[in-house]
Design brief:
It comes from Yimella lutea. With 264 residues, the chain is an alpha/beta fold. It has 7 helices and 14 strands. It has a 6-stranded mixed β-sheet. A 6-stranded mixed β-sheet has the order 6-7-8-9-12-13, covered by helices on one side. A hairpin with a 5-residue loop joins strand 4 and strand 5. Helix 1 packs parallel to helix 3.
Length: 264
């Protein structure tokens, strides 16, 4: 499986419409890959809380339509990163809010295969918990016969989420993020930990650049089920490319069957 992770850099001066055009162009340049990934909240600004409401869209809105067309154009699966979702029907969540941090996954034919609403909201008393609803559902999706589990950024800090995905026979964890430079070493360690403890591939696509006065961490990575970093990006905008063999998951679990010894 050939994968391409687009570690997008942007700042506060780039108009939203121009960024969407630029991202679509970057996706369309990845023809020949089986799976392309984008980072979290790239179209709205990962830390630009004030812009979220104005940038919010439905899961079939302009961003989704453009990404769907791009996936169909190159015949690849596309993890579109995440959007600030506002449902078209005006519905709200349990806390009365109408925004979610929602990932979009498209098939080779451009169809929406899955959506995932981020479960763990970052910001403590502000940011996501103040403005957004929490997702409630674990979501898996089949990518050419490989079962992938979906999570987003801050979810990475909660190992129980990935353990539950492991119980669902997930072989590949897809993690878009807007992880800041201030805690980038946590990012790098936790990615390897999630791969090692669950014996899965991890594909993690982070953001670069600086926006809303926040320097982003970069260091997107592709990690194998033994915790080996197969490819890692630097700190700037970059397309990280790698080739993975999903059959290595079963091989690793058979040769080192640690998961059979779980007692709790």
């Amino acid at each position: 499986m050939k994968v391409a992770l687009i570690q997008l850099a942007y700042d506060d001066n780039e108009p939203n419409a121009e960024r969407i055009d630029r991202v679509v162009d970057l996706v369309e340049k990845q023809r020949g890959h089986d799976l392309v990934m984008l980072p979290e909240l790239w179209s709205a600004g990962g830390f630009d809380y004030r812009a979220w409401s104005g940038a919010a869209q439905a899961t079939d809105g302009v961003v989704a339509q453009r990404l769907s067309d791009a996936a169909r154009s190159i015949g690849a699966y596309l993890h579109g990163g995440s959007i600030v979702e506002r449902p078209a029907d005006g519905s709200t969540g349990a806390e009365g809010k109408d925004l979610w941090n929602t990932s979009l996954i498209f098939g080779r034919d451009g169809r929406t295969l899955a959506t995932y609403r981020k479960i763990h909201r970052f910001g403590f008393a502000g940011g996501e918990p103040k403005l957004m609803e929490a997702g409630e559902d674990l979501v898996t999706v089949e990518i050419d016969g490989t079962r992938a589990g979906l999570s987003t950024c801050y979810d990475l800090r909660f190992p129980e989420l990935y353990r539950q995905y492991g119980d669902r026979d997930v072989e590949l964890s897809l993690i878009p993020a807007a992880w800041p430079m201030a805690r980038v070493e946590h990012w790098r360690v936790l990615l390897r930990a999630r791969a090692i403890e669950n014996q899965t591939f991890v594909l993690a696509c982070n953001t670069a650049g600086t926006h809303a006065k926040t320097e982003m961490g970069g260091h997107s990575a592709v990690i194998d089920p033994n915790g080996v970093v197969l490819a890692e990006a630097g700190e700037g905008e970059e397309v990280l490319r790698a080739e993975i063999d999903p059959s290595l998951v079963a091989q690793q679990r058979e040769s080192f069957p640690v998961l059979r010894d779980r007692r709790l």
